[in-house]
C-alpha cells in the first residue's frame, strides 16, 4: 500500500511527519514524499528539511494521499500542477486526506465542494471561500467520497490512526497507538479555539504573525 505525502516550501513539519510516523509503522505500507521536484524542502521557519523522493508525475496511483498544511499552502492555492495531480489521483485512492491548511489545497482542486471540512481555525474563512464548509471538529470524515480532513497540526496523528483502522482494523490502529505511545495528557487545556481565553488567543495571534 502506497501513501503519498506532497511537500512544498514552508510546510508545517508535524502535518507531514505525524501521519508519516503513524502510517509507516504498519507492515506493507510505503510512504513516499512527492513534490514539484526531487530534493529537500524546508519547513515554515527554514529550520527543518525533508526530502522529496519523487515528483508528482512519478506517483500516479497512490492508495492514500495525505496533504499537509503550512504557510506555504497559500501560494499553492490554484497551483496547476498540484491541482491537476490531486484531481488525477483522487479517483483511484482509497482515501484522500488533509491536515491543517492542507484542506485549502484539496478545496482548491475541487475535492471539497459543498462538503464540511476541518482545517486550522485560523483558515476557516479561506476554506469557506474555496467552496467547502468549515466545521470546528478535529477530524471530519466523508467516507462515501473517501475524503477525510483534520484540524490543526497535531490532529493529523488522530486522523492517521483512524486511517489505519479504516484501511486495516481497529487492533492495528491500537497497536500503532501503543508503539508510538500516543497517550495525550497535556499540561494545559487550551488546544481548541473554544477552550482558550482572550489573552491566550491574542498571544497565539502574535506568534502566528511572526511566522509570516
From TrEMBL:
Gene3D superfamilies: 3.40.50.880
Listed GO biological process terms: regulation of DNA-templated transcription
SUPFAM superfamilies assigned: Class I glutamine amidotransferase-like (SSF52317)
All residue ranges annotated as the DJ-1/PfpI domain in the record: 1-165
InterPro entries per the UniProt record, alphabetical: Class_I_gatase-like, DJ-1/PfpI, INH-QAR
PANTHER family: ARAC-FAMILY TRANSCRIPTIONAL REGULATOR, DJ-1_PFPI DOMAIN-CONTAINING PROTEIN
Designated name of the protein: DJ-1/PfpI family protein
Organism this protein belongs to: Mycobacterium vicinigordonae
Lineage: Bacteria, Bacillati, Actinomycetota, Actinomycetes, Mycobacteriales
Amino acid at each position: 500500500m502506497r501513501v503519498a505525502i506532497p511537500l512544498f516550501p514552508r510546510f508545517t513539519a508535524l502535518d507531514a511527519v505525524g501521519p508519516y510516523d503513524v502510517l509507516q509503522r504498519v507492515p506493507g505500507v510505503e510512504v513516499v514524499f512527492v513534490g514539484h521536484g526531487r530534493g529537500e524542502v524546508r519547513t515554515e521557519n527554514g529550520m527543518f528539511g525533508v526530502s522529496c523522493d519523487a515528483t508528482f508525475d512519478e506517483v500516479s496511483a497512490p492508495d492514500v494521499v495525505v496533504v499537509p498544511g503550512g504557510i506555504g499552502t497559500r501560494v499553492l492555492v490554484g497551483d496547476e500542477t498540484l491541482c491537476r495531480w490531486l484531481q488525477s489521483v483522487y479517483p483511484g485512492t482509497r482515501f484522500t486526506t488533509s491536515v491543517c491548511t492542507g484542506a485549502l489545497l484539496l478545496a482548491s482542486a475541487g475535492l471539497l465542494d459543498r462538503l464540511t471540512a476541518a482545517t486550522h481555525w485560523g483558515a476557516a474563512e479561506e476554506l469557506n471561500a474555496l467552496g467547502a464548509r468549515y466545521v470546528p471538529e478535529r477530524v471530519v470524515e466523508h467516507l462515501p467520497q473517501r475524503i477525510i480532513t483534520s484540524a490543526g497540526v497535531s490532529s493529523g496523528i488522530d486522523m492517521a490512526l483512524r486511517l489505519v483502522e479504516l484501511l486495516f482494523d481497529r487492533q492495528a490502529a491500537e497497536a500503532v497507538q501503543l508503539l508510538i505511545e500516543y497517550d495525550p495528557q497535556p499540561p494545559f487545556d487550551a488546544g481548541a479555539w473554544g477552550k482558550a481565553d482572550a489573552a491566550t488567543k491574542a498571544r497565539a495571534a502574535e506568534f502566528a504573525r511572526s511566522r509570516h
